[in-house]
Design brief:
Elements lengths: L16 H16 L5 E8 L2 E12 L4 E2 L5 E3 L5 H13 L20 E6 L4 E5 L6 H6 L13 H8 L12 H9 L16 H13 L3 H13 L20 E3 L5 E3 L20 E3 H12 L3 E2 L2 E2 L3 H7 L10 H4 L12 E3 L4 E3 L2 H4 L8 E4 L5 E5 L4 E6 L10 H10 L5
Antiparallel strand pairs: 1-2, 1-16, 2-3, 4-9, 5-6, 7-8, 10-11, 12-13, 13-14, 14-15, 15-16
Helix pairs in contact: 2-6
């Protein structure tokens, strides 16, 4: 169990303490007026922890407060960890970014692409090139999520039980075979669509490494970084620290989501795209490794050139998500934001109307958690909370602006 403590006067790393206090004041209002249950925030610069704050409840009904060791469902903030795992194997020669996924998952040979028709009677075309590892890392594979509700292929996923949850009898290998049996949304490499790509990538990691995904994480990433509270299942000994998952209630207020309790049960499917729980301490450790060019303390997971390459925009033609992405995030602005190998990447803050730096890389989770790394300012920030969906409030751009405005050096 790890707990974060501020280890530097904010002024020593360029922050105005009074302006940094605006972060807490702003996010407290979300709790005080009932929009969020509670939150934890950590802000660091130059590898020094300048600000840590906790507020609100980890469980509203019982009145339990958010505490420094609260455990949070991080959902899609699992994806960067899975992506780092794949990049580690790339560095070791166990896989190439251009490898066809079928080299690891045979059912991915001979995929079809949706052309027209309904979910029950789709017309399809053959793929013009195979789905490759880099397509999974960049979400340009043509795979999707059932919960998008925006395309007949999404419905095909739901008809097979893949929505916000997955069929309880499927392990990761079987789920990937099922994904491969369904059409892709588009030809690989031509568009961007958020989907199960990183879950499939997790299976590639398993095959390429000869280890289950949870074992690879524990032995190669989480253990070495000291992320002792991050796992696919919250242990019984930590269950009382788990934050309750909420969603907005019609007419105001919050209601508990039944999805929150699943993390306490042994997982059948090790979801590299959404399966982990973590703490503020643990994910802060992960962001410090990223900010450190792949290394933290005496542990190096990636070479700094690899991480720099992964956090460039890899979308076709240098496009941003607004141009090439499917309109899944209609409530958000993705102009000026590209996508690298597992991370969103800011390519033009002015176009995106975001107070951040070129090269900032980030991602978030379904329950409104978020992190970002700004390599220009050498700033990292982590926000933990438990409200789904993440599109409910613009927490992420607000966090960026509030942290950036506090820099005065």
């Amino acid at each position: 169990m790890g707990v974060l403590d501020v280890d530097v006067d904010p002024a020593e790393v360029g922050f105005d303490a009074g302006r940094l206090a605006r972060v807490d004041a702003h996010f407290r209002r979300y709790v005080d007026d009932g929009r969020l249950p509670g939150w934890s925030i950590a802000v660091a610069r130059n590898g020094r922890l300048a600000h840590v704050a906790h507020y609100g409840s980890r469980d509203i009904e019982s009145g339990l407060p958010v505490e420094p060791d609260t455990v949070w469902r991080i959902f899609s903030m699992t994806k960067p960890i899975t992506s780092v795992a794949a990049l580690m194997l790339y560095e070791e020669g166990a896989l190439a970014l251009t490898d066809p996924v079928s080299a690891f998952i045979p059912s991915f040979a001979g995929l079809r692409v949706y052309r027209s028709g309904s979910a029950l009677a789709p017309a399809t075309d053959p793929v013009t090139e195979p789905v490759r590892v880099w397509h999974l890392l960049t979400h340009t594979s043509g795979l999707t999520y059932g919960f998008h509700h925006s395309h007949p292929v999404d419905e095909m996923y739901r008809l097979r039980g893949h929505d916000l949850t997955t069929p309880g009898d499927l392990d990761l290998a079987a789920a990937c075979d099922q994904f491969a049996s369904l059409p892709l949304l588009f030809q690989p490499g031509t568009e961007w669509n958020y989907g199960v790509s990183t879950d499939v990538l997790g299976r590639v990691v398993e095959v390429a490494s000869g280890m289950s995904l949870d074992r690879f994480f524990a032995d190669r990433i989480l253990g070495p970084l000291g992320m002792t509270d991050t796992a696919f299942q919250v242990a019984d000994s930590a269950a009382d620290r788990l934050a309750t998952l909420y969603q907005p209630k019609p007419g105001g207020g919050l209601v508990r989501s039944p999805l929150g309790e699943l993390i306490t049960k042994p997982p059948t499917l090790l979801a590299g795209g959404a399966g982990l729980a973590s703490t503020l301490h643990d994910y802060h450790r992960f962001t410090q490794m990223l900010a450190g060019g792949g290394a933290l303390d005496d542990v190096r997971l990636l070479g700094n050139r690899t991480l720099a390459y992964a956090t460039r925009n890899h979308l076709p033609g240098g496009a941003d998500l607004e141009t090439i992405g499917r309109p899944i995030f209609a409530e958000s602005t993705y102009a000026g934001v590209g996508f690298g190998l597992g991370f969103s990447v800011v390519i033009d803050p002015a176009v995106g109307k975001s107070l951040t730096s070129v090269g900032e890389f980030a991602w978030g989770g379904l329950a409104s958690t978020a992190f970002y790394v700004d390599p220009v300012e050498d700033v990292t920030a982590v926000l933990m909370t438990q409200l789904m969906p993440s599109s409910t409030y613009p927490l992420r751009p607000q966090l960026r602006a509030l942290v950036m405005q506090a820099l005065v050096d």
